[in-house]
Design goal:
Layout lengths: L7 H12 L5 H8 L3 H14 L3 E6 L9 E7 L1 H12 L4 E7 L4 E6 L4 H11 L6 E14 L14 H7 L15 H12 L5 H8 L3 H13 L3 E6 L9 E9 L4 H10 L3 E7 L5 E7 L2 H12 L5 E15 L7
Helix pairs in contact: 2-3
């Protein structure tokens, strides 16, 4: 039996969590004009029906790290096994099966050059069933990071969104070196962005006051932000696709900024490679995807070529849960 689609209040809750993933239910309830119990009940329901998770993420650029998009062509018999192996790695954030199940697309944030080279030049290249490997370094993000697709729903009124949004301090010089205590805290928040202070204290061995200070510093500097993970199908987006656009260098920035404004776009970034603009889009149907490609993508200046690949299965979306 298919679960009912989220209603207006569900969307407001999801949008609120995208703005501040750790906002107390009491605060969200006050802003939405409902009871604490209603917010808690809706949250539990969305965890079950829409796979709702709040995940702590880090801005890799502030840490002096690179983000890579790796595309693997492999034999059909190994694609799923390879995707699951990549999904288990802590330095991958997204892993998808695309193109008839013969390609794996992976977003990775290696912690060091050695870790990157070990994966790209050693393990993957030595896997016999892997036919080809192409790796593209993310140069600039036009849409993504702290911004998620839920920000485009405008489910919250501007005043409600402003009331939830946390103030940020002045920009800080990168790269920033994390301490071991920071890494321990981030490891827990990557599994559960709404872990309580008591849970964070127990898991990291730090005092609750130290946990609060570190969490506040990591958030205020922009190093730590929170993303809402959810099943896209439950929100009416049954089609997910990857777009590789080849854009004239002089038009790249304008095309990327315009792409970021499209309601269908969940991520857009400039990368190395011949296809220098990457986008993840979601639509309700293939006919809607066709309209999007022919009208909105077709209307972008400077686009010389476009390759489209449907996502068959999301193996990892921020978190990896093989049982689901």
């Amino acid at each position: 039996m298919q679960s009912p689609s989220p209603d207006a209040l569900d969307l407001k809750l999801l949008h609120a969590l995208q703005v501040d993933g750790r906002a107390p239910f009491s605060r969200i309830a006050e802003i939405l004009g409902v009871s604490d119990q209603t917010v808690a009940r809706r949250f539990r329901k969305l965890r079950t029906t829409a796979g709702l998770r709040i995940v702590g993420m880090t801005d890799e650029s502030l840490l002096g790290r690179q983000s890579w998009i790796v595309r693997l062509r492999c034999t059909p018999d190994v694609a799923e096994q390879l995707a699951n192996a990549l999904a288990r790695r802590p330095d991958t954030s997204h892993v998808d099966l695309i193109s008839g199940g013969t390609e794996v697309l992976c977003a990775m944030e290696p912690r060091s050059r050695q870790a990157r080279d070990e994966l790209l030049f050693d393990r993957l290249q030595r896997t016999p069933q892997v036919i080809s490997v192409s790796a593209h370094c993310l140069l600039h993000t036009f849409y993504g990071g702290p911004l998620g697709w839920l920000d485009k729903t405008q489910a919250l009124e501007p005043g409600q969104e402003a009331a939830l949004r946390l103030p940020y301090s002045e920009p800080i010089a990168a790269p920033i070196a994390l301490e071991g205590a920071d890494e321990a805290l981030l490891a827990v928040l990557r599994r559960d962005g709404r872990a309580t202070f008591s849970e964070l204290q127990t898991s990291t061995g730090q005092s609750e006051s130290a946990v609060k200070r570190r969490l506040e510093r990591l958030r205020s500097t922009g190093i730590l932000y929170f993303k809402v993970q959810h099943d896209r199908e439950s929100l009416g987006h049954g089609i997910s696709a990857m777009l590789w656009l080849s854009v004239a260098p002089s038009a790249l920035d304008a095309a990327g900024r315009k792409l970021a404004e499209h309601h269908e776009v969940r991520f857009a970034g400039a990368t190395t490679g011949q296809a220098n603009l990457l986008a993840t889009v979601a639509t309700s149907s293939t006919s809607e995807l066709y309209t999007y490609l022919s009208e909105k993508i077709g209307g972008l200046d400077g686009v010389q070529a476009v390759e489209t690949a449907l996502t068959l299965r999301h193996v990892k979306q921020l978190t990896y849960e093989p049982s689901r």
